[in-house]
Specification:
A 5-stranded parallel beta sheet has the order 8-9-10-7-11, with helices on both faces. Strands 1-2-3-4 form a 4-stranded mixed beta sheet. It is built from 21 helices and 11 strands. The protein is α/β, with parallel strands linked by helices. Helix 9 links the parallel strand 9 (220-224) and strand 10 (252-257). It binds adenosine-5'-diphosphate (ADP) and magnesium ion. Residues 124, 128-130, 135, 162-168, 294, 322-323, 326 line the site of adenosine-5'-diphosphate.
Length: 462
């Protein structure tokens, strides 16, 4: 018989081993797991919330079970229970089955009707947000925060490219909190925040104080597109003080950004470290199935019926982001309304042919990009995909990744996989590097443009 205390030791050793294997930040975020009890078949471990439960279960359950198996020589089940307010809930009683490509399940409907929030758009709710593999983590986190603002994930940072749903998700949090509490929710873009700040400093002392008070007394502050604050030192400083005041008072902050905060340029270190201190999640472009689900939902909402073959056509040809999908759909619904006829496959093909032909939507493989780029720099494709980090290889590799992102439909995750299984953040970082170079060195731009032409020629011939 193994004593309870032995199980505790086994559990602690499991955690130690995991800690030595994974990133410290990841460990801190997800391994807040407390031993409850164990027997020969099962380890019962407490997690602090349903959100944790779902994430740990999907990401780490079998990994943790494997670690325990290594230590005790046999497989045991990991039973995760939610312990909140001294209550132990069987997690499974609470868990919703994972449901991809359906609207995010909105946390219980608001009990009362309330006046609309003037800065938040009605249509940006959890109800209208389609969840797919590209955004499920972000959407789950957003809902957890909306239910319990200011507790677990503060600040919350959502980052990713244009049109991927950052503003929508951020506003969904705001609307939910606004509808369900008396909390003062403030949504503002970083640009407006900057403009307000600039006019306040040119104004009377009262106006200055009014500006500070407004933001420092928010219960939940949502600031959209903080990359806009790059090079704006005064506004950054003001935000830094606002941040500290709200953070100390446990008030929830949510930020969006077009890149990870570590890639922000001309951004003060102290603000960067604060903004990135809480939970950082990224949004990726949706895959084909999610694109179909989004189009169907939006077509339905617009009241125009769009046949499945048209949905398929648009989803196959537009893979950049959701804004592009929406605008293609708007083109079709506007046409249907104008001529009073349903949209057929032929009409859709004809109406959208220019959109489909744009370089971002073309059908070029990563392999061809690698081959042509490697050739240009007198390397082999394998070297380009390999692990070597000498400058003569790193630079062409970054260029190839950049071109993949610019002219293909692949997500940064998929691109990373094709480059020797690299992480998508490496791809994003490489793209950022090349963008910076293009800005400062016209020769880099012309190298890339000529490479893209070669790639297209090659692709057209093959
Ligand atoms: P971002 O702020 O990242 O540039 P937005 O939040 O403005 O992107 O999203 C662009 C458009 O796409 C909006 O109209 C938004 O409602 C829609 N959208 C984005 N993601 C989703 C989603 N998962 N489900 C439904 N609509 C979405
Ligand atoms: Mg936005």
């Amino acid at each position: 018989m193994t004593e309870i205390s032995d199980y505790t030791i086994i559990w602690n050793e499991t955690l130690n081993q995991i800690r030595s294997e994974i990133d410290e930040q990841e460990f801190q975020t997800w391994f807040n797991l407390e031993f409850q009890k164990a027997d020969e078949k099962e380890f019962t471990i407490a997690v602090p919330s349903l959100f944790y439960h779902d994430q740990v279960k999907s990401r780490y359950q079998s990994y943790i079970e494997g670690k325990i198996e290594n230590l005790i020589g046999k497989r045991v089940n990991l039973n995760l229970v939610i312990v909140s307010k001294n209550e132990v809930l069987q997690a499974d009683q609470e868990t919703q089955p994972e449901n991809q490509n359906v609207p995010a399940k909105e946390p219980a409907k608001p009990a009362r009707t309330k006046e609309k929030h003037t800065q938040l758009r009605n249509e940006y709710s959890f109800d209208t947000y389609v969840v797919g593999e590209n955004n499920s983590f972000a959407a789950n986190a957003a809902q957890a925060i909306a239910r319990n603002p200011g507790t677990a994930y503060n600040p919350f940072l959502i980052y990713g490219g244009v049109g991927l749903g950052k503003t929508h998700l951020m506003q969904a949090i705001g609307s939910y909190v606004h509808a369900n509490s008396d909390s003062k929710v403030i949504y503002i873009t970083a640009e407006t925040f900057t403009n307000e700040f600039i006019s306040s400093i040119q104004d009377t002392d009262r106006a200055k104080a009014a500006f500070k008070n407004k933001y420092r007394h928010a219960d939940i502050l949502l600031i959209d597109d903080i990359h806009f604050l790059q090079k704006k030192d005064g506004t950054q400083e003001e935000l830094f003080y606002t941040f500290n005041a709200l953070y100390d008072a446990n008030k929830q902050m949510v930020f969006t950004c077009d890149r990870p905060v570590s890639d922000l340029k001309d951004f003060s270190e102290r603000l960067r470290s604060r903004v990135g201190r809480g939970l950082n999640v990224d949004l990726q472009p949706p895959n084909y199935e999610t694109r179909c689900a989004i189009l169907k939902k939006k077509a339905h909402a617009s009241g125009i019926s769009i046949p499945d073959d048209v949905i398929d056509l648009v989803s196959k040809n537009i893979s950049t982001n959701i804004r592009d999908l929406e605008s293609a759909l708007n083109t079709l619904t506007a046409y249907a309304k104008l001529v009073g006829k349903p949209v057929t496959l032929e009409i859709a093909q004809q109406r959208l042919k220019d959109v489909f032909a744009s370089p971002r939507q073309s059908n070029i493989s990563i392999e061809i990009i690698q081959r042509v780029t490697a050739d240009k720099f007198h390397l082999s494709s394998n070297e380009l995909k390999g692990k070597k980090r000498t400058q003569s290889i790193v630079y062409p590799r970054q260029i190839a990744m950049y071109i993949c992102r610019e002219i293909t439909e692949y997500t940064t995750t998929e691109i990373g996989q094709e480059f020797g299984g690299r992480d998508h953040t490496t791809v994003m970082h490489s793209c950022q590097k090349i963008e910076d170079l293009i800005r400062t060195d016209p020769a880099v731009d012309s190298t890339i443009q000529s490479l893209i032409r070669d790639i297209k020629d090659y692709s057209a011939k093959s």
